[in-house]
């Protein structure tokens, strides 16, 4: 089943020059495409809408600060089971718990600075795609 998912390459990935490496892993999956992509610096309002589910948690404020600390790459990935698939490529939230071979497992050490966001369900994908790419048909 072809799907679309919202991916953000976080400010650490951009600062460290890892966007080509990470986009390459998405691009190389059979049949997946990237119908939209942009480099942007996210404002607080957009971030609050995106990460609203975490409001009130101890990591929320530092997460907001980190996500606004520099440009990010926002992109839409499309293809067979891409929602589950990009989550698999990313690995678990904690990069030390993430297996080598995954994006977080290969490049991350700090939980907050874990390089990539990817929608975690069909409902999240639908909601997040509207936030970042409202004009996408
Ligand atoms: P994401 O939403 O960014 O794709 O990551 P996720 O689903 O794997 O993890 P989630 O629980 O949704 O957390 C969102 C982001 O918040 C930061 N975080 N820091 N204990 C901490 O310091 C902590 N926990 C989470 C991470 O950047 C995580 O990706
Ligand atoms: Mg999440």
From TrEMBL:
Catalytic activity: a ribonucleoside 5'-diphosphate + ATP = a ribonucleoside 5'-triphosphate + ADP; a 2'-deoxyribonucleoside 5'-diphosphate + ATP = a 2'-deoxyribonucleoside 5'-triphosphate + ADP
Main location (coarse class): cytoplasm
Recorded family membership: Belongs to the NDK family.
Co-factor(s): Mg(2+)
Statement: the UniProt record of this protein carries the keyword Transferase: yes
Designated name of the protein: Nucleoside diphosphate kinase
Residues at which ATP binds: 10, 59, 87, 93, 104, 114
Role summary: Major role in the synthesis of nucleoside triphosphates other than ATP. The ATP gamma phosphate is transferred to the NDP beta phosphate via a ping-pong mechanism, using a phosphorylated active-site intermediate.
Record's subcellular location: Cytoplasm
Alphabetized Pfam families for the sequence: NDK
Classification via PROSITE patterns: NDPK, NDPK_LIKE
Active site positions, chain numbering: 117
Start and end residues of each Nucleoside diphosphate kinase-like domain: 2-137
Gene name of this polypeptide: ndk
